[in-house]
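Incident log, structure service

09:12 report received: a user says their structure output differs between two submissions of the same chain.
09:20 pulled the input from the user's history:
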Amino acid sequence: MAAMTFAFEHPHLATVATLLHGVAAEHILPRFGRLQRDQIREKTSAFDVVTEADEAAERAITAGLRAAFAGADVVGEEAAGRDPALLDLLGSSDLAFVVDPLDGTKNFASGLPLFGVMVAAVVRGEVVAGVIHDPVGQTTACALRDQGAWLLAPDGQRTPLRVAAPLPVKQMHGIVSTNFVPEPLRTEVNGRLSRLASTNWFRCAAHEYRLAAAGHVDVLFYNKLMPWDHAAGWLLHHEAGGHSAHFDGSPYRPTHTTGGLLCAPDPASWAAVRSALLG
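09:34 re-ran on a clean worker, output below:
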């Protein structure tokens, strides 16, 4: 891109949303429930898998973004798995896109209709736009830096997104993923979960962030922070009025892959949840 900072605006966001809808319809949904064993491969574990749908969707999204945004960098989950140096582009590029072509791959491969497609636009280390598409429901959650967050229906209707109103910790419902929390902290956090009203985990950050941004859950708790899992959702939650930070209170950046991330309705709620879960 040119040396000047790219101004990401509503027409650009619409371009990305339309692209994700089309890619999901062409490359993801036709494969749902029809994958053969040789079309699913383990990456780092039996839980961390990749399918032909992930790879086809990433190729199509990458090509579409490069065609629509000449000169932009694209950091896809599968591409970065092959070349981790791509992550360095997020801090320096005038315009980079972070792509999760199929979030919730384990759900997808298991025949569970709980998965999504996520893209975040990043300008010199700052997330400026986020799009999370639900291929099954065919709705798209969108956020634009300093301009709010909304849910876009297939007919074009927009519904503003807003996080839940603050509540005491004991009344909060949380989505908590402690899988990647190191011991002994993992056991300590798991032992404190009963301080919330309820907790669960959907194996799909795309839907988890959408739930929090719409006010259907109060708390999100993550430890591993790969940008394709969190950049778009973090902005969606932020623009829906929420407060989030690393476990030590420092602000999230898409270049950060450690430090944990806690999301809550407001700063006071964040502090109360942090105290309840992390001590």
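09:41 both user submissions now match this output. Likely a transient worker issue. Closing.
09:42 reviewer note: The chain is about 35% helix and 25% strand. Residues 10-28 form the longest helix (19 residues).
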